[in-house]
Design brief:
Number of strands: 10
Structural class: alpha/beta
Strand content: 15-25%
Strand order of the largest sheet: 1-10-9-6-2-3-5
Helix content: 25-40%
CATH topology: Rossmann fold
Number of domains: 1
Distance between the termini: 11 Å
CATH class: Alpha Beta
Oligomer: single chain
Amino acid sequence: MRIIKAADYEEMSRKAADLIAAQILMKPDCVLGLATGGTPVGTYRCLIEKYQRGDLDFSQVSSVNLDEYRGIDRENPQSYWYFMHDNLFHHVNISPERINVPDGRNLDAAAECRRYDRVIENYGGIDLQLLGLGLDGHIGFNEPGPAFVMDTHCVDLEESTIDANQRFFESREQVPRQAYTMGIRAIMQARKVLMIVNGKNKAEIVRKAFFGPVVPEVPASVLQMHPDFILIGDEEAFSEIEA
């Protein structure tokens, strides 16, 4: 595990974008595993700026997103399909045919999960996987539980996750209760994993996930076993560790 400390959110975002840009420059047809939520927005903004300056070309890049709400339409502003297009895809030259997000419109969970695993397998896996970190240690929607779930699966969202996502909806009742998420296997088989984390409220879970035991009750802890894992955080997120 490699730890990179940033002074604040902006520096964290720039450092993360630099690593993703390096991946694209080294392998123009790379497969990027992408994340949603508030944390990566700054990173995507930095990538857009690099593209607009002519420093990056996304035309051969393929993307596979971590997750999507089940039972939500792509045009819904709270869908992760919409989020990715609004925050990145509409602003760079990535080919629509190379964009992959679990299809929340497909209510056949078993079929959709099998399909998405085949998509990742057909790409030959992920070159760089970007992750955020949930307050309970979840990555994607891999929630705390008795065992790590290996493959793409449909998950019932924890109350804490619903609470965290409530700010994106008009009311708590509108937050979907289920989601499709990439499993631990695809994440751990990514050739490089990059996690970004910021804020004082993440300090305790950073300590538990990366300086405690590897247990499925803290899903992110499994990343301690990844051979090329980079953790970038701001000073507040690292306030309970020495980085």
